[in-house]
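Before drawing any conclusions, I looked closely at one protein, both as residues and as discrete backbone shape codes, quoted below without any editing:
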Amino acid sequence: MGLSTRLRKKIKPRLPDGVRIYAIGDVHGRADLLQSLLTVIDADLARSKPRRAIQVFLGDYVDRGPDSRAVLDLLIERSKSHETVCLKGNHEVFLLEVLKDPSRLQEWRHYGGLLTLVSYGITPTMNPTPEQQAELIEALNLAIPPEHLAFLQQLPSSFTCGDFFFVHAGVKPGIALDRQKDEDLLWIREEFLESERRFGKYVVHGHTPVSTPDIRPNRINIDTGAYATGNLTLLTIQGDSLLAI
């Protein structure tokens, strides 16, 4: 899906010359889909050889899908050989909170957290007692590799390049981008999604699943519900051209 004519005429957000960005939406444990898109990116890099390529991942790497652990392995390994920006999603924040507070396990299960436990080799019971919850989280703390924990703890909340602002959920309308609160960057929905105002830069985000990339004059949503649909979206940006596949 290319950039709409309306967007091309009215805004024309641009990246600096020579920069190409590959942005990937919410992965949610679908390591298989992530690996497929990394292969696509590698083929494009080999063919076109951009001067500078930045790979931006929009958060929500864990929960809901079957292999959160493998997703983190892929992202950590990717960062060793490519310029990458891995943003924080609300699910990463929730995982870190659960590791500190086992009583939130029951709440975490509603966010698909039990599948993250399973990906680390931990099998939860259906209705764990408070004591069992503490044991499960203690087991998770022991099972998570130190590099995974370090990765999760240092994720930034946003990334800016040229006229583009990359973030997990969105921004609070009317607030300058450099004054946004993490709570909004990671969790906001309707107030942002329903706004038609300009945000200072063109916002690339995920968080709220859509059937196909949702291109608006002020933003684009590339969360296509990969864990449920099998469709993980890759957005390529160069100059003022956007292409989502």
